[in-house]
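Example record for the data management plan.
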Amino acid sequence: MGNKREKLSFELFSTGLSTGVAYKNRSLKRQIILAVDTKNSGSINELSKEINTSVPKTTSLVNELILEGLLQDEGKIDSTGGRRASVYGLIPDACFFLGVDVKKYHINIGLMNFRKRIIYLKERLPFKLENSPESLKNLLHQIKDFLSHIQVDKKRILGCGINLSGRINHRTGHSFSFYHFREEPLAEIIQQEISIPTFLENDSRAMAFGELYSGEILSEKNVLFVNMDYGTGLGIVLDGKVYYGKSGFSGEFGHTPIFNNEIICQCGKKGCLETEASGNALIRKFKERIEKGSSSSILKNNKAADKIGIEDIINGAKNEDTLCIELLSEIGEKLGKGLAILINIFNPELIILGGTLSDTGDYIRLPAQSALNKLSLSLVNNDTSLKISKLGEKAGVIGACLIARSKVMYS
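Corresponding structural encoding:
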């Protein structure tokens, strides 16, 4: 039965063409999987109504999905009268989805089961993101090493989602900011190396996707996710769906030119939000203050200012280092200026602050809230909540897994 189960699972989620009755049955099975996935479980009667098909036909399809190893009987539900009905749910280990969240100086990799639970997770694996063949080689090595250590049949990993910063064409799998040395899409190159269908996504959108289905977003339909890392990105959720824009490049929040300064952004322009409100800006400001005579406890043990990273400043603030707290407050205030613009334009229900800098909590949230209160229209910002991501560092890897899962199961 194991071989049959494996074969049929792949058939259901494959993009191969089928016709006639086979096509209709395949379509109905996918609708059943979607219905069960959305509500966590369902009875025959509920599923029959959901897919608008007779009870006998639905029963037959559910039985086939059980034989294929995708659904399981999860017991009886209480009834007001008559026989108690069985409910059916997804089998957790029927298949799996890999998520790779690529940061500037580390990688997070996770494996999600069929019921959207992360069962393996490796965080902060050493890495340096550069647009070089060596960096891509290291990325592939980290993914392969992760796969070699998990106790899962690799044939059951149906998709891999990979997040990268910068401009990504999620439809074609091209990256225009990193690893664009060859004509083939980056997703295709990685897929050939790991033998798993691979999908690329912008890191901020992936994190927003993770929040949408597993994090802070509950009933809200219009949400902005601000990714505060070395750069500053934006994931946009409109009417309950992640928004991509015409070319798929929406969310370049960090490159909004709102400051009158002579600081050159990594995009090549001056005055971008990132030059004043980002991890890179935080580190630059720290070095400038030290050069002007300020002191900080994070420089103890003769650690040089040019060796300081975001995490050092975050830890300094948590340990009540005055300079670190002051700089985070300044970053938060500048960020609030950008958020005020977003609120005036989008009038969102919720803004989530995520990414590495969100670990500072109120040190950055409160100055940002104060600034946007002063600079945005009161009638608009009264409808918007500003929260820190509960998923934190895990938002990206969860989003990557969920995107791969969605691409395989519902595309």
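Summary line stored alongside the record: The first strand starts at residue 42 and ends at 43.
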